[in-house]
Write a structure and sequence with these properties.
15 strands; alpha/beta; 6-stranded parallel sheet; Quinone Oxidoreductase, Chain A, domain 1; 11 helices; about 325 residues; 2 domains
C-alpha cells in the first residue's frame, strides 16, 4: 500500500440526500496501540447508510463523517501490541461508520478473517445482513426445523439473508417481494413459496399456503401494515420487527397481540452485540463456519466505484437492486 499522507473517502459534511456526499482526501490516522490498519478493497451498502446520511438513523455520528458499516480488505499494518492479526491477512471489518474509504483503522475485535470462499465484495456485504438475519431467526426467534417462516422484502440484502438462513434451518420459507425478477432471486436462495405482494394480499396468500393456520415467524424489515402482519401469524407466532424500509413505522394493537397470543420481537442486532459481546462472538463463529463450508453466501448483484457512491445509495433506497450492492476501491500497490 502506498504511504501517501492521505486516502480517499466518501464524506458527509451535511445531512441530506446522498447527492450531497463528496469524495475527499483525508489524512491518514495514527496507528494507536490496540489497532490495525486495513487497506479496504470493497465496502457494502446497507439501508441504514441511506438513513444515516440524512440524520434519520438511531446512530448519528458527528459531522463530518464517513458513512459505511462494513468493508473487506487486507491488513496493512498492526500496532506492536496486536498479536491476533498480521499484515497481509484478508479480513472483514464491521463498523458503525467509516467503511466508505480506502483505509480503516480499527481494533481487532471489529475484524474477522475473510472466508476463503468469498471475494472482497462478498466479504464486504456479509456481516451486516447475515448477522441481523441470524440473530433474529436463531438467537431471538429460536427457529426450528419444520416451522413456517414468512420473509417480507425478501429480495433485499437482509431479506435474502433471512431466506437463506431460514432454508439452512430447514424451515418452510414463504418469500414475499414485488417483481418476477426478485422472485427468481429468492427462489434461487431456497424459498419454498413465492409471493408477489403487488398482485396478491400477503395475509390472504399466507393463509392459503398454511391451510388457514398462519406462520410461526414473520421476518419484517419493511414495516408492513400491522393488521396484515398479525393476520399472517398463527396462534403464539412471533413477529420479528427488523426495520422500516417501507418508510412507515407501524403501531400494533395490543388487543390483537393478546387475542393471537403473539410475541413481537424488536431486532437491533448491532446493539445486541454491543450489549452481549460473547453472544456476538458466538454468532460470528457460527456464521463464518457456515460461509467457509460454502453453505451461505451474499448475493452481490452490483459493484460501483467509490466515486459513484451516491448513485449506488439511491438505487438501494429506490429498491432497484437485487441482493447486495458493493463499492469497489482501488487496490494500492
Amino acid at each position: 500500500m502506498s504511504r501517501s499522507a492521505t486516502y480517499r473517502a466518501v464524506l458527509c459534511r451535511e445531512l441530506g440526500p446522498p447527492e450531497r456526499l463528496e469524495i475527499a482526501a483525508l489524512p491518514r490516522a495514527h496507528l494507536a496501540p490496540g489497532t490495525v490498519r486495513v487497506s479496504v478493497r470493497a465496502a457494502g451498502l446497507n439501508f441504514p447508510d441511506w438513513l444515516m446520511v440524512q440524520g434519520l438513523y438511531q446512530y448519528r455520528p458527528d459531522l463530518p463523517f464517513v458513512p459505511g458499516m462494513e468493508a473487506a480488505g487486507v491488513i496493512d499494518e498492526v500496532a506492536p501490541d496486536v498479536t491476533s492479526f498480521s499484515p497481509g491477512d484478508k479480513v472483514m471489518v464491521r463498523m458503525r461508520a467509516g467503511a466508505f474509504a480506502e483505509e480503516a483503522v480499527v481494533p481487532p475485535n471489529q475484524i474477522l478473517p475473510l472466508p476463503s470462499t468469498f471475494s472482497f465484495e462478498e466479504g464486504a456485504t456479509f456481516l451486516a445482513a447475515h448477522t441481523t438475519a441470524y440473530h433474529a431467526l436463531k438467537t431471538r426467534a429460536e427457529i426450528t426445523s419444520g416451522q413456517t417462516l414468512l420473509v417480507l422484502g425478501a429480495a433485499g440484502g437482509v431479506g435474502l439473508a433471512a431466506v437463506e438462513i431460514g432454508t439452512l434451518f430447514r424451515a418452510r420459507v414463504i418469500a414475499a417481494t414485488s417483481s418476477s425478477e426478485k422472485l427468481a432471486l429468492v427462489q434461487k436462495a431456497g424459498a419454498n413459496h413465492l409471493l408477489n405482494y403487488t398482485q396478491l394480499r400477503v395475509e390472504d396468500e399466507v393463509r392459503r399456503l398454511t391451510d388457514g393456520r398462519g406462520v410461526e415467524i414473520v421476518f419484517d424489515p419493511v414495516g408492513i401494515a400491522p393488521e396484515s402482519a398479525l393476520r399472517c401469524l398463527r396462534w403464539g407466532g412471533k413477529l420479528l420487527v427488523v426495520g422500516f424500509a417501507g418508510g412507515h413505522i407501524p403501531s400494533y394493537a395490543a388487543n390483537r397481540i393478546l387475542l393471537r397470543g403473539s410475541t413481537i420481537i424488536g431486532v437491533r442486532a448491532g446493539e445486541a452485540g454491543r450489549q452481549d459481546p460473547e453472544m456476538r462472538r458466538r454468532e460470528h463463529r457460527e456464521l463464518c463456519a457456515l460461509a467457509e463450508q460454502g453453505r451461505i453466501r451474499p448475493q452481490v448483484s452490483e459493484v460501483y466505484p467509490l466515486e459513484q457512491c451516491a448513485g449506488a445509495l439511491r438505487r438501494l433506497a429506490d429498491r432497484q437492486a437485487l441482493g447486495r450492492i458493493a463499492l469497489q476501491l482501488r487496490a494500492k500497490g
